[in-house]
Structure formats: structure tokens, C-alpha cells
Amino acid sequence: MHVLGIETSCDETAAAIVNKNRQILSDRILSQIDEHRRYGGVVPEIAARSHLDHLSLLVTQALDEAGMSFDELDAIAATTGPGLIGGVMVGMMTAKGLALSTGLPFIAINHMEGHALAARLSEGLNFPYLALLVSGGHSQFVAVAGVGDYRIYGTTIDDAIGEAFDKTAKILGLGFPGGPAVENSAKHGDPSRFSLPRPMHGRPNCNFSFSGLKTAVRRVVEEFKGKLDNQSINDLAASFQCAAADCLADRSKQAINRFGNEFPDGKTLVIGGGVAANKSIRTRLKQCVAESGFQLAAPPPKLCTDNGAMIAWAGLERLRLGLIDSLHFPARPRWQLDARGAKDHR
Ligand code: KG4
Ligand code: ZN
After folding, report:
1. How far apart are CA 274 and CA 52, in angstroms?
2. What pLDDT digit, counting tens, does each position of 169-219 carry?
3. 180 pocket-lining for ligand 1 (C-beta < 6 Å)
4. Tens digit of pLDDT for each residue in 72-118?
5. Is the same domain home to 69 and 204?
6. Do residues 152 and 197 share a domain?
7. Ligand 2 centre and the CA of 101: distance in Å?
8. Is residue 122 part of a domain?
9. Are 53 and 168 part of one and the same domain?
10. Nearest protein CA to atom 8 of ligand 1, as residue
11. Residues with Cβ < 8 Å from 23, sequence gap 6 or more?
């Protein structure tokens, strides 16, 4: 069983082929970072055009790299939301067109489902498990009981954590993309130098809040009247990263408690999404889940940030259950992960 996966929901154009033995036969990805850098963020219109310019070639390259032709594939999967709608349309319509012309089934994938199932591709993890999905657009805990069987425990009440990293990078003048820039700067900084808030700390729910943390960083910069020396920038980046990691650890304890009550067989917290590529956050979470008797499963960074393999894999998981979709399936800029059950595959 082989599935081609297409991902175009943000600023990565990606196409990959996986098989049922959890092998990634090809994994083509083109980052648009250079096209968006001068705007300091992703420009939706530029992203959509760039996906359109590059996706066909990436699909051809994915087939070549896997040494396969369309007639050796079993399905074509694409992200149909949530995300920037122009980009989602490009990937989804390409997949539908290919499905129509080859006669292969089309499978619609929720981008967050791709992140949630990536650890089954890389680690071969069994259900159920708890997933912490932390990206540029989302911060959420999801109890993953099976394919299409997701329960959202909590989400952010304001900014997503990746957004907080990106905005902090901008405030500190570290450039774009923000997450890796903050992580690099933080390596040379003292995380105890600035005292920053830990929003939601100790609250008896699984929600997040990151906007106050970002504002606190801005206040420190204002106190310095914008004249932070390099060491202070590194110290502030490290203090921010440490506070963000503390928030994730505190919220994870709450989510693990609830998950432990509802799914006594599950003992794993999976992290996914771009922010899960952050080494210091991984280390902090590893220590925190161990204290709760859980283990941390983290796909390799390449599978944490947006990629085609996770979409191909989610497609394969659905195909195995016979969950294919009609070519009328809509593109959805917003799409809650728990909004479609395993049987809802219109
Ligand atoms: O999952 P992803 O690739 O795209 C979305 O679906 O949003 O996540 C991108 C987000 C960005 O906010 C980026 O700054 C953040 O993940 N990110 C990181 C790191 N690498 C990417 N944040 C912190 N540390 C990193 N190393
Ligand atoms: Zn993502």
C-alpha cells in the first residue's frame, strides 16, 4: 500500500510517498522562507502562488525519488484545511485533479491530524496516546484514541505558541522564521536573567495563553528603550523560551491527569508541530512527563515541522480503514480536529 501526500497549508510546499511498513519512500519539501522573509511573516497570496509554481514538480520528484509511477500508488491524500485557504486550494485541487485523471482514491486530511499521527509513522506508536500539538497556528492537547477519533482537551485562548515565538523574534530583531532564531539566540543566554510570567500556571484546565508572555517581552525591550545589547537579547530569548517551556510542562501535567483517568492504558505524550522541533522544549517536557509516569514520543524535527510524509501517512491510515473522500470535499480554512468522526468521510 503506497500513498502520495501533498501539503500546502502554510509556507512549505511538500509531496511525499509512504508505505504501510512505515517507510518514507520520498519526501520532497520546498520552504518559501526566502520569499516571505522581507515581509517578516507569511504573505498568503505569495504563498498560494508559490505553491502553484512548484507543486507539480515536487510531485514528479516524489514519484522519481520513490522510483514509482502513478499506477503503483493506492491513493492521493492532501491537506484540505485548516490553513491559508489559497494554499490549501492549490494542494487540494492538484490532488483531486490527479485522483480524477488516474482513477485513484482521494483522501482529505486535516493538517492537525497529520501532526497528530506523525508519531505512528516515526515511532510505530499504538493508540491511545495524548498529543500536544504546538505550531504557528495551534496549541492544543488532543487525546488520540484512533484514526478520526480525537478529543480536544484544551487549546489556546489567544496566541498559538509558535506565533509567540515568531512575535518575540520580531520584537528582539532576530528575524524570520522566529522559532529557530529564538532557539539559537537562547543557547547563548541566561534563562534566569528576566522574570517573565507563566500564564495559566496551575489552572485546573488544559488551556494555554501566550499573549501576555509576548507582551512581557515587549515591555522589557521598551524598558531598555530598544537598546538591548547582544547578551541581553540572548538572555531575553532564553528567559522567554524557558517561560514557554514551563507553561507547556504545567499544562501537560493537567492534560496527563485527565488523559490518565479517561484512558488508563495510554502512557505516552506525543509532541508534534513546528515548536516540537525545539530541543530545550523537548528536554523540559521529557522530564515533566517522566514525573507523571509517562514517556515522551517526539518524531524527528523534520517530521514535526510541516511536511508531506505526515499527510501521506494520515492518508494511509485512513485508506486502511476504507475512509476515502469524495471529490466534492471542501477546503476549510478553519477545521476543528474533532469535527469529523471516523465514519464521516463525505
Ligand atoms: O507546524 P509548523 O511547521 O507550521 C504550522 O502549521 O504552523 O510550525 C511552524 C511554527 C512557527 O511558528 C515556527 O516559528 C515554529 O513552528 N518553530 C519553532 C522551531 N521551529 C519551528 N519554534 C520554536 N523552536 C523551534 N526550533
Ligand atoms: Zn503544521
Report:
1. 23
2. 999 999 888 999 999 999 999 999 999 999 999 999 999 999 999 999 999
3. yes
4. 999 999 999 999 999 999 999 999 999 999 999 999 999 999 999 99
5. no
6. yes
7. 29
8. no
9. no
10. 274
11. none
Alpha helices in the chain, H assignment, sequence order: 33-36, 44-66, 85-102, 111-122, 161-171, 178-186, 211-223, 230-262, 279-291, 301-304, 309-320
Best of 110, 133, 161, 165 for a ligand 1 pocket test (most atoms within 8 Å of beta carbon): 165
Nearest ligand for residue 12 CA: 1
Whether 135 maps to a domain, the answer reads yes
Mean pLDDT score of the chain: 95
Give the ligand 1 atom nearest the CA of 83.
Answer: 6
Pocket flag, ligand 1, residue 178 (CB < 6 Å): yes
Compute, in angstroms, the gap from residue 61 CA to the centroid of ligand 2. Answer: 22
**CA-to-CA distance for 84 and 35, rounded, in angstroms?**
16
Same domain, 44 and 105: yes
Taking every pair of C-alpha atoms in the chain, what is the biggest distance, in angstroms? 63
- The ligand 1 atom at the shortest distance from the C-alpha of residue 177 is 14
